[in-house]
Design a protein that fits this description.
Length: 72
């Protein structure tokens, strides 16, 4: 009975803590410059279901610390 109670408490604890995870994108690779803020003149472009930001004739992707330059 005690083992069942402990198992149920563990399942309850794990199920409530993992639901609050917020994912903002992948981490940028080492050595990649991250742009912290985007300008007001950006455009949102979707390519194969992924969201990219376009400004200054470049495409950027959202990552944890800002935006990185990508080639499409």
């Amino acid at each position: 009975m005690r083992a069942i109670f402990i198992l149920l408490m563990m399942v309850f604890t794990l199920s409530t803590t993992s639901s609050c995870i917020v994912h903002l994108g992948h981490r940028p690779p080492q050595g990649v410059v991250v742009v912290k803020t985007r300008p007001a003149q950006y455009q949102v472009i979707r390519v194969q279901g992924k969201k990219y930001y376009h400004w200054n004739n470049n495409h950027y992707q959202r990552v944890r610390g800002g935006y990185i330059l990508v080639r499409l």
